[in-house]
Write a structure and sequence with these properties.
The protein has 13 helices and eleven strands. It has helices at residues 3-6, 20-33, 72-81, 89-92, 94-102, 117-134, 161-171, 188-197, 210-223, 239-245, 248-266, 312-332, 357-373, and strands at 10-15, 60-66, 104-106, 139-144, 176-178, 200-203, 227-237, 274-278, 285-295, 301-311, 337-338. One of its GO terms (molecular function) is inositol-3-phosphate synthase activity. It is an enzyme of class 5 (isomerase).
């Protein structure tokens, strides 16, 4: 029996499965497994997590929901042409891309979709259950990597698509990770069901660029007792993210996490705003500028400016793989509720935890060690949850 069949396999169900991030995740996992590239950017592949009991990359099986119909191999070709994926990789892992593409099911709601919210949740949950059953998976983790939704108009607003997917994940007995600023599990209906489900979950909004720097620089200013007077930023984005964030409501949801990091690490909110501009010519690449005005000794006024230029999909993909593996292992170890220790990866982490990157990493490393000790200490390790007795969310 082959190694891939002798070990339990774990599903990774991606919401937005034909987007740039998801395509890079599937391509990257296949390339690393085949030995074509090292796992650069994957924290879970560093020595600190060797004994954490995480599922192997070769044991991950991909599927998902999307409202787009562009096949993954074609999407990978486009990303290659844009410089996101290295030449030849999409061809080398074409079989893996095609296999994942066969597991993508229609998402929603789309224009003209007459299904109720409850019907959509049921359909999405059935898709996930079918995926787990057909592949005989030990468990599956649902990860939202879809485009950012507009911020919710209020607590009584109908649940957006991201929340319907989150509820479907819970209904299917799967842990859930929200890598986007969208509402997802934060909606009151989903929050209630999450508490009842006993499943672990994590999020919100992956920390990949500008906010990553802020999580490092904010504590630096605070620890050196330097008073920050103003902190302004500008983002130039292309691709689907740029188009989605051209909507002021969606941009507001994105910026909330950036501002929270400064408030938490500085202990105050300095003057200044973050502006997001859609520049389609940039494709999947982004540029972020920060202008920081601060006071030094005797009130001497000084300035720090930073420039971050990167590829959003390549920055996000290794984090998504990390999160899928860590969350799957947390589920296997019987953990439930918000996974505070995964705040290292997010702008707006669920649960309680530090906001400075160094402290977040230490907490993550401790979490990794605890996962490795879970089996030795007799912590519960069970099969995929069967949530048939869960109440109707809507």
């Amino acid at each position: 029996m082959s190694a891939s069949l002798s070990r339990p396999r774990v599903g990774v169900w991606l919401i937005g499965a034909r987007g740039s991030v998801a395509t890079t995740v599937v391509t990257g996992c296949a390339a690393i497994t085949a030995g074509l590239h090292p796992p650069t950017g994957m924290v879970t592949e560093t020595p600190a997590f060797t004994d954490s009991g995480l599922p192997a990359l070769s044991d991950l099986v991909f599927g998902g929901h999307d409202t787009l119909d562009c096949p993954l191999p074609k999407r990978a070709e486009t990303l290659t042409a844009g410089g996101v994926l290295p030449p030849g990789i999409a061809t080398a892992v074409a079989a893996e891309l095609e296999a994942a593409d066969r597991e993508i099911r229609p998402g929603g709601p789309t224009s003209g979709d007459t299904r109720s919210e409850a019907e959509l949740i049921t359909a999405f949950a059935d898709d996930i259950r079918d995926f787990v059953h057909r592949h005989e998976l030990e468990r599956a983790v649902v990860v939202n990597v879809a485009s950012t939704e507009p911020a919710s108009p209020g607590p009584d607003a109908p649940p957006p698509a991201s929340t319907l997917y989150a509820l479907a994940a819970l209904r299917a007995g799967c842990p859930y990770v929200n890598f986007t600023p969208s509402e997802g599990m934060h909606h009151t209906a989903a929050a209630r069901e999450a508490e009842r489900s006993g499943l672990p979950y994590a999020g919100r909004d992956g920390k990949t660029g500008q906010t990553l720097l802020r999580a490092v620089l904010g504590p630096m200013f605070a620890q050196r007792a330097l008073r920050v007077r103003a902190w302004s930023g500008t983002n130039l984005l292309g691709g689907g993210d740029g188009a989605a964030l051209a909507d002021p409501a969606a941009a507001a949801a994105k910026n909330a996490g950036k501002e929270r990091v400064l408030a938490d690490t500085l202990g105050t909110v300095p003057e200044g705003e973050v502006h997001i501009d859609d520049v389609p010519a940039l494709g999947d690449w982004k540029t972020a500028w920060d202008h920081i005005a601060f006071d030094g000794f005797l009130g001497t006024r000084m300035i720090l400016q930073t420039i971050w230029q990167g590829c959003d999909s390549a920055l996000a993909a290794p984090l998504v793989l990390d999160l899928a593996r860590l969350t799957a292992r947390a589920h296997e170890a019987g953990l439930s509720g918000p996974l505070d220790a995964l705040g290292f990866y997010f702008k707006e982490p669920v649960g309680d935890g530090p906001s400075g990157l160094a402290e977040q990493y230490e907490e993550l490393a401790r979490f990794g060690r605890s996962l490795g000790q879970a089996d030795e200490e007799g912590q519960g390790v069970g099969p995929v949850a069967q949530p048939d007795d869960m109440g109707e969310a809507l």
